Amino acid sequence: MGDVLRNLQEFRKEKEKERTKLEQEHEKKKKVEKAEEEKIAEKKMPNGKEWDFLTKSEPVPEGYEERKWVSTPLAIGIYVIGQALAVWAHFGCVFFILSLILFTYWNTGRRRHGEMSAYSVFNDNCERLAGSMTAEHFERDMLRQRR
Fold first, then answer.
1. What is the pLDDT of residues 40-87, one digit of tens each?
2. Within 13 A of 131's CA, how many CA atoms are on the CB side?
3. Contacts (Cβ under 8 Å, ≥6 apart) of 54
4. SS (H, E, C) the chain
5. Residue 80 burial class via C-beta count within 10 angstroms: exposed 0-12, middle 13-18, buried 19 and up
6. Residue 134 pLDDT grade (very low, low, confident, very high; cuts 50, 70, 90)
7. pLDDT at 6
8. What is the pLDDT of residue 144?
9. Do residues 40 and 48 touch, judged by C-beta distance below 8 A?
10. This prediction's pTM
11. Are 124 and 114 a contacting pair, CB within 8 Å?
12. In the predicted model, is pLDDT for residue 9 greater than 90?
């Protein structure tokens, strides 16, 4: 029983040390962030709003999302008729699979110039989006490691 109590006390001491260390690191980060904010303010960026593009959406240019060649009800009607003809010709599954592929292709969005993709491999220098989860983050969380 004495070993268990001793181990529990050691565990609590280690946890307390880790907690104080994390608090100190958090305070250091706050100080660094405050210093960086002061530096940015000193540089006098235009209106101090150089990062507004992250929080505010830009106006969508006309015709950006309007790529419709055919109205939706007409497209559904054409699809149903095509599917019925394909089933009649014993190619219903093939038509369905091909239509899924075409539907997926037609609904992939087009990015504006400078807009980042959700997949980092398609971005310049393989940049990740802010807040995206990586394998390193997942591994660290699974192993409960702190870096």
1. 666 655 555 555 555 555 566 655 555 566 678 888 999 999 999 999
2. 1
3. 130
4. CHHHHHHHHHHHHHHHHHHHHHHHHHHHHHHHHHHHHHHHHHHCCHHHCCCHHHCCCCCCCCCCCCCCCCCHHHHHHHHHHHHHHHHHCCCHHHHHHHHHHHHHHHCCCCCCCCCCCCCHHHCHHHCCCCCCCCHHHHHHHHHCCCC
5. exposed
6. confident
7. 82
8. 76
9. yes
10. 0.36
11. no
12. no
**N residues, the chain:** 147
pLDDT tops 80 at residue 113 = no
| Separation CA 12–CA 9 (nearest Å) | 5
Question: Are the C-beta atoms of 85 and 79 separated by less than 8 Å?
Answer: no
pLDDT category at 117 given cuts 50, 70, 90 is confident
Alpha carbon distance 60, 67 (integer Å): 14
The whole-angstrom separation of Cα 141 and Cα 87 is: 50
Report which residue type is found at 7.
Answer: N
Residue 102, token pair as written in the block? 């075409």
Buried b (16+ CB within 10 A) or exposed e, 106-132: eeeeeeeeeeeeeeeeeeeeeeeeeee
